[in-house]
Amino acid sequence: MDGELLEGQLAYYKARAEEYDEWFLRQGRYDRGPEWNRRWFAELEEVHRELGRFGPTGRVLELACGTGLWTLDLARHAAGVTAVDASPEVLEINRARLRKAGHETSVRYVEADLFDWRPDAAYDTVFFGFWLSHVPPERFEAFWDLVRHALKPGGRVFFVDSVGPETPDERERRSRGPQDHTTTRWLNDGREFRIVKIFYDPATLERRLADLGWRLSVMRTKERHLLYGFGESLARTAP
């Protein structure tokens, strides 16, 4: 059973709330140097452009919304955003970020564990950033069923995630064995947590999702550190 692992993963992200933006913004121990950082931000900008072209308009559901770095982008396009996360710590940071930007009235926040939660409405778009890699393999199909049932007929999905580990140190800390999809992460204060972390090959992921009734395009960014996907379900969506 993965209950203990998922409890630890949630504890990690609750404890990491105040540090998460350091990773995303390449600050502190996540600063890889000017050239690496430049490529990272160029890749993020590439995904933001693709998201803009995709057009997350109408009612948008963001799963595992985190500290709001993507919520803010979604709120600029959407008529309204429902942002779901299991961590009250990151939701508070998210609210503050959206409030500062003047978008707080367009976002509804839901504190819930995505492995237990069911949507209470149907949406034009479902978005999740850096979340699919944290879904255990045995919950993969159930997660995509959740996404499907959150969409209106004709609704679409967009996601972004990492292609692989960033550094040799991260590779070394991954658990050994082809069937063990976990890695060890640590916080600035030295505390360690074991979490799910699965890296997908875009073509393989695209084919697997096609087998589940999705028509998605999955691709790498130019620098090949990030992947993103978008498309729609070919199976029945929420009425």
From TrEMBL:
Matching InterPro entries: Methyltransf_25, SAM-dependent_MTases_sf
Q: Where is the composition biased (Basic and acidic residues)?
A: 168-183
Gene Ontology molecular function: transferase activity
- What transmembrane ranges does the database entry give? none
Which residue range or ranges hold the Methyltransferase domain? 60-155
Q: Where is this region: Disordered?
A: 162-183
Q: Does the keyword Transferase apply?
A: yes
The UniProt keyword set, sorted, is: Transferase
Matching entries from Pfam families are given as: Methyltransf_25
Query: What protein am I looking at?
Result: Methyltransferase domain-containing protein
> What species is this protein from?
uncultured Rubrobacteraceae bacterium
